[in-house]
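Incident log, support desk, overnight shift.

02:14 A customer reports that sequence design results differ from what the structure should imply. Their input is reproduced verbatim below. On-call engineer (initials T.W.) acknowledged and began investigating.
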């Protein structure tokens, strides 16, 4: 009962509630429930995403402000990458606490600009306000599909291979501020292959995989020994008492790509890589449930990751 009560207050229960009641429009091809919304426009499909990063939640009061600016922009670029597309235009609203000086504000802008320059994105607007609370930044990014198909969370099919870029876990040791959203990789994959479903790992591998499973109405089996465990996960495990694998499965903010495709295509991608970033096949889509295969045996895998509003995930 407690768990239920918590779940009812949780972030995903709230998003579900909003989703049931949100006003619609015929131009919204994909609304709430994916990394970006997909909107019809005379220039073809557009994607749009918005995110907040908040002091004390996504960064600490003493985090270098240039890194805060980078993280705000890069997290939204990652949501566009999760659609298989390249971000084009950023607008950013900033709530600035009185303690910050003009120089501090410039540092935030430098961080936003670093990310925009690295990814060829225009910073085209925003809003600046003061706040009695901590620093927060809200970033909104749009991109045109430009002939590509936006890749949704809802397209996974039974039999698909599940793949992930990079390595996972322990991002709190540094990667969560300095990650490189996998934009070039996402666009190359979407150009060269038929991707069935994709998401970026912001909440955690098992939690984000679960988002794909819920939207696709499928299940998954993950092979424990195939999950690419990062050095940071190993290092963090020494302090936490968890295993490196638990960190790789449950930690958030790695901003790697998690995607599904035909198993034949997946083998071709592994045999003939189309970019330098490592890619691993970590499991397969099945009809129902979420399982971890360890030494040939299946164990139920609880989706674990960061959930705002403290609901049980
Ligand atoms: P991500 O981690 O990829 O940024 P979220 O978990 O924040 O995605 O959001 C999941 C989905 O719910 C997205 O489609 C997002 O646009 C939508 N969403 C989240 N919060 C709200 C809200 N307050 N109102 C409407 N839609 C929301
Ligand atoms: Mg996302």
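02:41 Re-run completed on a clean worker. Output:
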């Amino acid at each position: 009962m407690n768990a239920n009560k918590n779940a009812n207050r949780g972030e995903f229960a709230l998003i579900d509630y909003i989703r049931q009641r949100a006003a619609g429009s015929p131009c919204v091809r994909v609304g709430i429930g994916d990394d970006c919304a997909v909107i019809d426009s005379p220039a073809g499909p557009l994607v749009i995403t918005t995110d907040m990063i908040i002091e004390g939640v996504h960064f600490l009061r003493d985090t270098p402000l240039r890194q805060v600016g980078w993280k705000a922009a890069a997290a939204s670029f990652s949501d566009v990458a999760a659609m298989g597309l390249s971000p084009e235009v950023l607008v950013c609203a900033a709530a600035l606490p009185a303690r910050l000086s003009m120089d501090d504000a410039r540092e935030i802008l430098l961080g936003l600009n670093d990310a925009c320059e690295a990814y060829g994105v225009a910073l085209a607007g925003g809003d600046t306000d003061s706040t009695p609370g901590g620093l927060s930044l809200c970033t909104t990014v749009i991109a045109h599909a430009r002939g590509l198909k936006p890749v949704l969370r809802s397209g996974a099919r039974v039999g698909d291979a599940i793949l992930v870029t990079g390595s996972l876990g322990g991002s709190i040791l540094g990667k969560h501020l300095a990650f490189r959203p996998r934009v070039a990789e996402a666009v190359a994959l979407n150009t060269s292959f038929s991707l069935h479903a994709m998401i970026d790992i912001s909440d955690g591998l098992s939690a984000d995989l679960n988002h794909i499973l819920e939207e696709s109405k499928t299940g998954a089996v993950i092979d424990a020994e195939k999950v690419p465990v990062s050095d940071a996960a190993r290092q963090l495990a020494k302090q936490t008492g968890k295993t490196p694998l638990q960190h790789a499965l449950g930690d958030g903010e790695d901003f790697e790509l998690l995607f599904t495709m035909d198993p034949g295509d997946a083998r071709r991608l592994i045999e003939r890589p189309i970019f330098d970033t490592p890619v691993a096949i970590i499991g397969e889509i099945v009809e129902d449930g979420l399982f971890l295969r360890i030494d040939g045996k299946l164990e139920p895998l609880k989706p674990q990751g960061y959930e705002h509003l403290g609901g049980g995930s």
